[in-house]
Structures are given as C-alpha cells and as structure tokens.
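re: that chain from earlier
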Amino acid sequence: KKDELGLPILSLDQMTQSYLFDEFWDKREGVCANLTFLYLALAERLDLPIRAVVMADHVFPRYYGRDGTFNIEATAEGKILPDDYYKKLFYKDREGGAQFRILSKREFFAMYVVGLAIQYWDKDKTKQFSEYLQHSMDALPDMGIVRAWYAEAYFMQGKYKKAIEQYKKVLATTSFNTGYYYRLGEAYLKN
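^ sequence. v structure.
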C-alpha cells in the first residue's frame, strides 16, 4: 500500500521488522526513525546542519542551511518535500495547523528508544517494554506518541487506572485520534 506520492505505508509488523539497523541494512528497507538516524549520523560526521523533525508518529530530517530550509523524506530515497505534504498527511492540531517539532539529539534518541521498546511489545515482554519507555518519558514527557505508548504499557500490565490517566493526558495534547479513544474506552471497560 502506498500514499499519494507513492511512498510505502507499512503495517506495525513491517515497521518493527525494519526498525533495527541490522534488519533494515540487510533488507535495504527501513522506517522513518532509523533512516532519519542514519541521516543525522552522516550529517554530524560531515558537519551539515540537519535536525530531526517529528509530526505525530513520523520523523524526518530537515536541512537548515544558507540556501534555505528543506525537508528530506528519508523513506523516499531523500526526496525533498514541502511542509504542506506533512501537514496534510500526518497531523493536524485542534486549531487546524500542523505541529512540527524540531528535536534535539537527546529528544530524537529518546524517541528512537520508543521504537526499540516496540520490539519488546511485539514479543509480549512487558517489563522490558516499560523500562525502555520510562527512559523516553523522562526525556519527552510532553510528546503525545511517547505518552501513548507509555499508556499502552500500563494497559498491557493490567494497570487500567494508570492507562486511563495517561490516555487522557495524550488526548489533551494531541489531535483527534480514534485509536487513542478506542484504547481509552477499553481501559474504562476493564477497570
């Protein structure tokens, strides 16, 4: 399945299989986080002004140079895409504008750790999942996607009251997301 620009839309299973470097390197396919990680590592080595930008559940590198600022879509072989592409496809806040967040190295790494935590979620290793997420929550307490996975960790552990509390915080800071409302409803039913 592909989006309007022909970029692949991956299932959660495909994303988690492509998340670790050895997996994506061997298969020659990755997801936004590990491909952005690669761009950032190269940019640092080459002293290029590139930072990670996150929108909801997508991250991409952005170049900040003398000749302007542009977005590099790492999942599309480095295609340069306008802000409007991301605004339309990935996220709209309650006022209708896009929410771009430029990440520090520490924040990007914390977000990347969420992806590593998901590796444990797929394997039903709740303790490891929760430990990885705790590190990300410490660094990014106000990022909705991190908090949503944190809520999921509580849900998986049967701590529905804490899951409800976290999902409410997510929904107070992010746009309408039926998945979050659905999971919140499930937590209420199980509580």
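The radius of gyration is 17 Å.
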